[in-house]
Amino acid sequence: SQTIHQWPATLVQPVGSPLSLECTVEGTSNPNLYWYRQAAGRGLQLLFYSVGIGQISSEVPQNLSASRPQDRQFILSSKKLLLSDSGFYLCAWSVAITSGAHNEQFFGPGTRLTVL
Amino acid sequence: AQTVTQSQPEMSVQEAETVTLSCTYDTSESDYYLFWYKQPPSRQMILVIRQEAYKQQNATENRFSVNFQKAAKSFSLKISDSQLGDAAMYFCALGCMEYGNKLVFGAGTILRVKS
Q1: Which terminus of chain A is more solvent-facing, meaning fewer CB atoms within 10 Å of its CB: N or C?
Q2: Contact A92 B45 (CB under 8 A)
Q3: Does domain A3-115 have CATH number 3.80.10.10?
């Protein structure tokens, strides 16, 4: 069966420090991968998605970047964190788009980031 | 652009009763799909139910069912025999292959279950 991992679970960082959040998927190949941010009590905002190694699409201009160095690894980074980067970050995967496939996304447990 | 609107920020239901959560959406695509996700206090996102737009029959999963009104672009979730474990934030989501399988989420509805 497929599983998705995120770490760390919780992170407190000072403003201006770098960030690296990691997401890995097991039990599937060539997944689509996604990074979302969820502000407190709010919906999910798609930040990045990837359909393959080295292929990253950014949804909103921001202080963050994403990379996909391996098929099932997705990394969210920042060189200098801002206060506004605080939030709950969720990684998700789905099967690659194929005709007739269910296209639901499966989510990791998330990372709670607090920037002070 | 695709949008999803959940007009109920918060709902309450008595244990064992039935509750309906509302969702409306907008898309110019004809081939799309809709989901309801549940986010309990643990914040783990859990898929509750899915509906493909080409299917006329409303999806059901045990106590969860949807009322999919394609012409009205409405996709409501009905929870029957509500249980304390149903208390969570519920998100409606819309996706389509033309948009690279990305999902657009509504703002969510907090469901409280009273014992």
Answers
A1: N
A2: yes
A3: no
Strand partners, B89: B39, B110
DSSP one-letter string for A59-75? SS-SS-EEEEEETTEEE
Q: Which residue among B45, B101, B108 places its CB closest to the CB of A94?
A: B101
Angle at B90 between CA B100 and CA A57, to 5 degrees: 25
Report pLDDT digits (tens) over A12-46. 999 999 999 999 999 999 999 999 999 877 889 99
Count how many domains chain B has: 1
Domain of residue B109: give its range.
3-114
**Residue A10 CB-density burial (10 A; 0-12 exposed, 13-18 middle, 19+ buried):** exposed
Q: Within its chain, how far is the Cα of A12 from the centroid? A: 17
CB B66 within 8 A of CB B76: yes
Mutate to test the interface with A, among B44, B47, B52, B102 (most CBs of A within 10 A): B102
Domains of chain A by residue range: 3-115
